[in-house]
Amino acid sequence: MELVINERQGIIVWVYSLKHMKTLKKQGLIHYVSKRMKYVVLYVNRSEVEAMEKKLNSFHFVRKVERSYRTDINMNFDHVLEEITQKPEEKCYENEVSEIG
């Protein structure tokens, strides 16, 4: 038996009221709910994202549906680590001191 990992996509669903959480639970995996700002982060299979957006927009309690940008962000930070580990060049502050004094 082989383990198959499905690619997932986050969808942010802005709602008017959180009373309809049971309906959203049936659509995908709820990752986070903001009671104060009234939005839900929902994960669905990447192959079903477009159909799910249309379906969610059809609900009367949904204000707006947005895709998460998490999958579009490059999570490779090798270039940042290289900049941090490089030794900074020693700067000569004599010119700055003579200008002040």
TrEMBL record:
The keyword Cytoplasm applies. Its main location: cytoplasm. Keywords: Cytoplasm. GO terms for cellular component: cytoplasm. It is found in: Cytoplasm. Coiled coil: none annotated. Belongs to the UPF0298 family. This is UPF0298 protein SAMN04488506_2135.
